[in-house]
Amino acid sequence: MNTYGRFPLALAKGKGCWVKDTQGRRYLDAVAGIATCTLGHSDRAMHRALRRQLGRLQHVSNLYQIPEQEQLASWLVNHSCADSVFFCNSGAEANEAAIKLARKHGHQRRGIEQPVILTAAASFHGRTLAAVTATGQPKYHKGFEPMVTGFDYFPYNDLSALEALINRYEQAGPSIAAVLVEPLQGEGGVNPGDRAFFSRLREICTQRNILLILDEVQVGMGRSGRLWGYEQLGITPDAFTLAKGLGGGHAIGALLVNASADVFEPGDHASTFGGNPFACRAGLTVATEIERRGLLNNVTARGEQLRDGLQELVKCFPEHLETVRGWGLLQGIVIRESSSWKAPQLAQAAIDQGLLLVAAGPSVLRMVPPLTINQREIRELLRRLAATLSSLS
Ligand code: PLP
Q: Which end of the chain is more exposed for a tag (fewer CB within 10 A), N or C?
């Protein structure tokens, strides 16, 4: 169906941070399936692990115990603030699970009849009906009304607006089940969360027994230089969602929850494909390789190199470029409002220079390469981006 505006480019092969199109042209891939191919393309460890898994067992129902799922859940629980995990297949599905958990928690633990979930303006939580309602961008709602009831929105990082909204809802008694928020808004413009905002949000949620749920779909699994975005903010959530980087290019999503918020019982939620042995093997391989190769240190070092280089580019094109924002290997270059440049147009021009980049809205150009990218490749990325910008100016 006609659901995507696509570039006229067909990718046929990949190795590490590089992809080749069907004509044999090579591109440096700073899109990585939009923050998904954690280990790059055709990674040897991934290839070996998945080949073995395919030879053993690919899929069984969640009617049975699944050792690979238990191993991945153990790794996630041992490396985060969470106590248990529900597996699904995508970010939107993980957020759907979180929304159901929040509503049940609101009914059971706070006695709320019509629970409300607060999310941020300019957020992105996925395209299923509840996830797109949670997404605080009217352009994604248009044409699909009526939206799901029980959602309201606050300006991101705006403490007084959020406090006023919570007070308004809770004046006559409990009515908010959860605040669902990204630690850094990815699609909404690479906008990092503010530590003071999140610290106060954590306090308010704890005081009122409102669940604080973080959408770590884009930031989680090491992209920020820490395993979880909440570590950058100095707080711990009651629950968080993952997808994208977790499977390194294979479909898997997850809802992770603390014991105190875990209100799900058998029969409450399910997924046929969720947590199948193949997807969990992919997740386990990503987890193991992040640790074995010390990828968090690489993300921090390469992220700084990228950021420094982007800041130099901002200085070279001051009439068009405003600033650089982001964490680790999730960096965005912000285009001035007064500029005639638009991010999708820059991404198109970069293709001609053999570089793949992705827009985050009209005015932010996003870079989310594999976490394995090396120093030379970052230099090459910056060289190709400089050539792109020169070609336009
Ligand atoms: N949440 C965030 C923060 C995302 O960035 C995305 C996708 O871009 C999603 C949710 C939706 O994930 P999916 O496309 O896997 O449903």
A: N
